[in-house]
Automatic annotation (TrEMBL):
<dbReference type="InterPro" id="IPR027417">
    <property type="entry name" value="P-loop_NTPase"/>
</dbReference>
<keyword id="KW-0547">Nucleotide-binding</keyword>
<keyword id="KW-0067">ATP-binding</keyword>
<feature type="domain" description="Double-GTPase 2">
    <location>
        <begin position="12"/>
        <end position="183"/>
    </location>
</feature>
<dbReference type="Pfam" id="PF19993">
    <property type="entry name" value="DO-GTPase2"/>
</dbReference>
<dbReference type="InterPro" id="IPR045528">
    <property type="entry name" value="DO-GTPase2"/>
</dbReference>
<dbReference type="GO" id="GO:0005524">
    <property type="term" value="F:ATP binding"/>
</dbReference>
<protein>
    <submittedName>
        <fullName>ATP-binding protein</fullName>
    </submittedName>
</protein>
Length: 387
């Protein structure tokens, strides 16, 4: 997780073949946030930092909603989108100054996994794009629901080819990404498998998705995990194919697109913001106390811990996150993780209620994200690793 001064900045890298639904997912994520129905119930708004990008995404959404037109597909278009999550304007005089939460969404072209670059310039853009997204803590690998359905009974044909394509693409980039062969310190450590176009398989819940992947392509997924582990420092703090989510940007029928029928799109922000915090403090707890791995993981969790935990917030106000005191503050975050485990997510609801009562915008939003993840698990939309 990256911290941008006092404000918080999350990054997510989205990977998928061409046609797997990346553009539709992004357009649905942003477009629905501009709808009156979202604004009536949400305590925050989502705004694109680049006005032109925001207009294009909103236009894509409105064409789906009103003209039943899918967004145009893109080829070799590597784009990063930055969104600010801001508190809605309020006349409440007791409201405290609100920090913004920012989401950077990296869209990695699927063609760069399936096709070799045609020019040196294109190859350099591919390398630069991947280097730009290594600041993400979370990566989302999309499994195309349409292709999975088309291979019913022979899902292994599609899934094995998909994971092998991702693996080979990463292996080809390895020498260009590593500096003198040294593993990367900053790298996505949580690789979630997402079923895009989940509406095509309405009877498949997230547990069923995991069973299909493990049964049909478990060996290939392990090979992908090994390839990722070879790129990163401290590979023991790496989760690949242990988290699963169902994603449907809209319900597509012949001649009709229903943008109100969505699944999992509202989990993008919670997965980017809260999932790393939850996972990192658990890993730090299990690592040897005082080790580099434990310290690095605990410190990476601090931006969220500072917001959610008053004791750690006090350290932050004193600016005392350097040296031994910083290590103590880092490990204090693990106490909250232990409490969250024991309460099965109920603490997030308590934290959200308390922050809302105290008019602490950012704390309420992040705690609310924790509640969203818990509810998604209960609904069979999200499956989080228990490791």
């Amino acid at each position: 997780m990256a911290s941008n001064g006092v404000g918080k900045q999350q990054q997510i890298a989205v990977f998928g073949e061409m046609g797997s639904g990346k553009t539709v997912l992004l357009s649905s994520f942003y477009g629905m946030a501009q709808e009156a129905a979202f604004k009536e119930v949400s305590q925050f708004e989502i705004l694109a930092d680049d006005t032109g990008q925001g207009t294009r995404l909103h236009q894509n959404f409105l064409k789906m909603k009103k003209a039943n037109e899918r967004p145009p597909t893109t080829r070799f278009a590597s784009t990063s989108y930055t969104f600010s999550i801001k508190r809605r304007r309020t006349s409440n005089p007791t409201s405290k100054p609100a920090e913004d939460l920012r989401l950077i969404w990296h869209d990695y072209p699927g063609e760069w996994f399936s096709e070799d670059p045609g020019t040196d310039d294109e190859n350099q853009r591919r390398i630069s794009t991947f280097r730009a997204l290594v600041g993400s803590d979370v990566a989302l690998l999309l499994i195309d629901g349409e292709k999975l359905a088309a291979n019913a009974g022979e899902e292994d044909r599609y899934l094995k080819a998909l994971f092998t394509m991702f693996r080979n693409g990463l292996v080809k980039l390895r020498d260009d990404l590593l500096d003198a062969g040294k593993p990367l310190t900053r790298f996505p450590r949580i690789w979630i498998l997402g079923l895009s176009k989940a509406d095509v398989l309405p009877d498949l819940d997230v547990a069923g998705l995991k069973e299909i992947v493990v049964e049909k392509a478990g060996a290939e997924m392990n090979e992908l995990r090994d390839a990722l582990a070879s790129l990163v420092e401290m590979p023991e703090a790496l989760s690949v194919g242990e988290d699963f989510v169902l994603l449907s940007s809209a319900k597509f029928e012949p001649g009709r697109i229903d943008v109100t029928e969505r699944t999992g799109v509202n989990l993008i922000l919670p997965m980017a913001a809260v999932l790393p915090f939850d996972r990192f403090v658990k890993w730090a707890n299990r690592a040897r106390r005082g080790s580099k791995l434990a310290n690095d993981l605990a410190r990476a969790a601090l931006p969220v811990a500072v917001v959610l935990t008053p004791g750690i917030r006090a350290f932050s106000r004193l600016g005392r996150f350097a040296g031994p005191v910083g290590a103590v503050a880092s490990f204090a975050a693990t106490a909250l993780a232990k409490t969250l485990d024991e309460a099965d997510g109920g603490v997030f609801q308590h934290l959200e209620d308390k922050a809302t009562k105290n008019h602490e915008f950012l704390a309420a939003v992040l705690a609310g994200f924790g509640v969203d993840l818990q509810r998604a698990e209960e609904a069979g939309v999200l499956l989080r690793s228990r490791a």
